[in-house]
Amino acid sequence: MDSNIPEVLESSNSENISISSSPGNNNSSASSSSSAASTPSRYENQKRRDWNTFGQYLKNHRPPLSLSRCSGAHVLEFLRYLDQFGKTKVHTPICPFYGHPNPPAPCPCPLRQAWGSLDALIGRLRAAYEENGGKPEANPFGARAVRLYLREVRDLQSKARGVSYEKKKRKRPPAPPPPPLPPGDAS
User: Compositional bias of type Pro residues: which residue ranges (predicted)?
Assistant: First the structure.
């Protein structure tokens, strides 16, 4: 790849990665039209940056790819490319610290993108694809291969750290208290 490839940054939440377009690729047209009336949320800004970066990745791909020809395999290639910017130590099975959540010493195991970061990134790109005119049934970010890859990364990182990723349980609103009993009906 060449020097026009995006730079990967870490957002304030270490569970998410942020990818931003190369410096000369500022997209100010969207922000100038909405000015102070309705500023986009952090999520919307992140989604736009991720979308622009994926577009840049496709443009720099050899041979260059159009979005319409992009498949789940290209998305996997993009995710593997992002691994080089990762900050999460993933122990290999031969490492003495494999399965330890807090290793006592440094080791030569590779740094990778965290599963949660990749999962969030794919969610944003999946939404952006459809917002930019893509058909849901043709969405490469929702391809079976991408889902399987994310599951594999999650399982591998879970075993390497000795920590399981549990699905977050939805918090249900507390049940309303029972109505008070009428006076004299204290049975």
Answer: 174-187
Whole-angstrom CA distances from 26 to 22, 41, 89, 112, 132 are: 8, 18, 32, 28, 18
Give, rounded to a whole angstrom, the gap between the first and last alpha carbons of the chain: 78
pLDDT digits 0-9 by tens, 18-72? 444 344 444 444 444 444 568 889 999 999 999 999 999 999 999 888 888 899 9
Handedness of CA 35, 124, 143, 140 (dihedral sign): positive
- What pairs with residue 111 in β-bridges? 89
pLDDT band at 141 (very low <50, low <70, confident <90, very high): very high
Q: Return the CA Rg of the chain.
A: 22
pLDDT digits (tens, 9 = 90+) for 9-29: 333 333 344 444 344 444 444
In 3D space, the residue among 31, 165, 37 whose CA is nearest the CA of residue 101 turns out to be: 165
Distance CA 146, CA 143 (A): 5
- Tell me, letter by letter, the H, E, C secondary structure of 56-108: HHHHHCCCCCCHHHCCHHHHHHHHHHHHHHCCEECCCCCCCCCCCCCCCCCCC
